[in-house]
Design brief:
The complex is a heterodimer of chains A (about 240) and B (about 240). With about 240 residues, chain A is an alpha/beta fold. Chain A has helices spanning about 50-55, 90-95, 95-100, 105-115, 135-145, 165-180, 190-195, 230-240; strands at about 5-20, 20-35, 40, 65-70, 75, 150-155, 185-190, 200-205, 210-215. Chain A has two domains: about 5-70 and about 150-240, P-loop containing nucleotide triphosphate hydrolases (Rossmann fold); about 85-150, no CATH class. Chain B has ten helices and no strands. In chain B, helix 2 packs antiparallel against helix 10, helix 3 (about 45-70) runs antiparallel to helix 8 (about 150-185) and helix 8 packs antiparallel against helix 10. The radius of gyration of chain B is 21 Å and the shape is flat. The chains are: A alpha/beta (about 240), B mainly alpha (about 240). At the A-B interface, strand 5 and helix 3 of A face helix 7 and helix 8 of B.
């Protein structure tokens, strides 16, 4: 059976005005987001992958071309967490629910479940400034899950974290993807991360940002990052990105 | 709440100081009252009358400044209006007094309107500058999670404006106390008020001196009891 297409990007271009110069960030982008897949946007900095992520969510509009979306709940997990510093952990998690008038009892149940799932017990009343980077991103993920999203967008969610936390959170995000039956679109600049996590990898090249190739991940899960084939594949894709 | 507030005072000596700061103005004010009893002027009544005018003007300014600050800190209207405000705020407010008196007469309304145009500028500009602290990520998060309309104002714009509201209030009220005395004297308000106190006691040097001291202590106490704790709290609000 052919998977359902949730978002369809056709011939999209996008530019920004920087110091009176017109900088093209994306050129001729064509991409589908399929239901339940784990799609990775991989590329060097300046290749427009974060911009494409924002086009997929509707936070940005394309200059030309089209982004066709099915009507579905979406969530966003940010590179710099983007937690609201004036709200505590619990209030951050329930922010989306507050905005969408979810009633009290259900809201409290969702928040309590997510606090437990993300290992945030005991920190419900803590403010973001009191948390470590890893804990902050757990709150960011819990805030995203609270919306019962169909698609979760991750913008380099681990790049502000230490390696130890990064390795751990990757596994947790994979678990969430499996158990919550969500579609994930993630941006990364790490080839290893892309091959470890994704079903499909859209490889970007920079200036202007274009999709060089879309790779179907050949490795079955769970994946071993130390296996010979895996390391060889990482090297091959790394060359492509350069 | 009280318990949490007391936590600001970490040692017993702090509490002692706080009590002293609270009590001193009242002792002083009572002292002034006994000094000026012969002149048949009640300092407490004058102080309260001026304070009420200032509070009314402050509340009106607060509402206007928040509405303007939040809506004008972005968008095309803002880029047009802000330079205009910048010119307006540098206009010496006392120069407007004759016009205000001509329009509204030597009344309480005149004083309050004059106070509003004094207090509002520091508040407005502090709120606008606090809106500049908004991080792109916060805005995107608020948008993705559906913050629109009045909810975006209450849950998003107001908390970000809070530090600006507090610093703007401190500066604005500081200027306001100066302005209320000046305006009452210039307008020639015959009702109760600090302006009346100072102008009718201008020949009694000691009354004026103690009046000024009492007013200073009163403002100092207000700052310590209300504004400094709020300042501390509001600046933590935007720390990530």
């Amino acid at each position: 059976m052919k998977p359902k297409i949730l978002i369809q990007v056709k011939n999209v271009t996008k530019h920004f005005d920087e110091d009176e110069k017109r900088v093209q960030v994306l050129r001729d982008i064509n991409l589908d987001v399929r239901e339940y897949e784990f799609l990775m946007l991989l590329g060097p900095s300046g290749s427009g992958k974060s911009t494409l992520l924002r086009l997929l969510t509707g936070l940005e509009e394309p200059d030309s071309g089209s982004v066709k979306k099915t009507n579905a709940n979406i969530s966003f997990v940010f590179q710099d967490f983007a937690l609201f510093p004036w709200l505590n952990v619990e209030q951050n998690i329930r922010f989306g629910l507050d905005m969408n008038n979810v009633h009290g009892g259900l809201k409290n149940r969702i928040v309590a479940d997510l606090v437990a799932e993300m290992g945030l017990q005991g920190f419900e009343r803590a403010y973001p400034r009191e948390l470590s980077g890893g804990m902050k991103q757990r709150v960011g993920i819990a805030r995203a899950l609270a919306m019962s999203p169909k698609i979760i967008f991750f913008d380099e969610p681990f790049s502000a974290l230490d390696t130890f936390t990064e390795v751990k959170l990757r596994q947790e995000v994979l678990k969430i993807w499996r158990e919550h039956k969500v579609t994930v679109v993630m941006v990364t600049h790490s080839v290893e991360e892309a091959l470890l996590m994704a079903d499909r990898i859209a490889v970007f090249t920079a200036r202007p940002g274009t999709i060089e190739k879309i790779i179907d991940n050949p490795f079955p899960r769970p994946r071993n990052v130390h296996s010979k084939q895996f390391v060889a594949m990482v090297e091959k894709i790394s060359k492509m990105v350069e | 709440m009280i318990h949490r507030y007391l936590k600001i005072y970490k040692r017993r000596i702090h509490i002692l100081w706080a009590f002293l700061i609270v009590l001193l103005p009242f002792i002083f004010i009572l002292f002034i009252d006994s000094l000026t009893a012969e002149a048949k002027v009640s300092f407490i009544g004058d102080l309260l009358a001026s304070a009420v005018r200032l509070i009314v003007a402050y509340i009106i300014s607060l509402v206007i400044a928040v509405v303007l600050g939040v809506t004008l800190s972005r968008g095309k209207l803002g880029t047009f209006m802000l330079p205009l405000f910048d010119v307006l705020q540098s206009f010496p407010t006392f120069a407007m007094l004759p016009l205000a008196v001509a329009t509204f007469g030597p009344s309480e309304t005149t004083v309050i309107i004059f106070l509003i145009i004094t207090v509002i500028w520091p508040m407005l500009f502090a709120i606008i500058s606090s809106q500049k602290l908004i991080k792109a990520g916060w805005e995107e998060a608020a948008t993705v999670y559906g913050a629109v309309g009045w909810k975006r104002v209450v849950y998003f714009a107001l908390p970000i404006a809070a530090p600006g509201i507090v610093t703007g209030s401190i500066v604005g009220l500081g200027e306001g106390w100066e302005a209320v005395v000046g305006a009452e004297i210039i307008v020639g308000l015959k009702d109760h008020g600090l302006g009346n106190f100072f102008s009718s006691n201008s020949s009694a040097g000691h009354a004026v001196f103690f009046g000024v001291m009492a007013l200073l202590l009163f403002i100092f106490a207000l700052n310590h009891i209300i504004w400094l704790p709020l300042l501390e709290k509001s600046h933590k609000m935007l720390t990530e």
